[in-house]
Amino acid sequence: MKYDAYWISPAGKSIGVKINHIGTVLNNPEIFELTKDFIVKKYKDYGEPIGLEGKARADVMLGLIKKGWMRARYYPKFDRWQLQTYDYGKREQDIVLNWGREALAEKYAGINSDLLIMIIKTQRTIKSSFLQIANGKKRT
What we know:
Layout: E1 5-8, E2 14-16, H1 21-27, H2 36-46, H3 55-66, E3 70-75, E4 80-85, H4 90-105, E5 114-119, E6 124-129, H5 130-134
Parallel strand pairs: 4-5
Antiparallel strand pairs: 1-2, 1-3, 3-4, 5-6
Helix pairs in contact: 2-3
């Protein structure tokens, strides 16, 4: 099924996001090796309502990204996918390449769609495209 957002597991498995990334985590904490209690406590620690896209959300999501999860979101106005990863070594490059091929095969990305890879650890952004992925290019 086509979604406008995905979580990509450290093993490279895509998980479609129906509404928002934190909602997927809240509804399926076990997939992310978290507990509902852990997430609720984070929100309480920040004094925020559960599910708010604020500081608690950022904290939970950064924790997941540091564990190897990747976050992908499509911006149709720009025909661009944005992917967040903590690092961008060989493992991450292979996952992005495989996810990109899946996106092309399942038609949730077009050959001319852009891909921005945001690397949190180095605060670097790599501009790529699904054409480069189709050609097997991992890195720009």
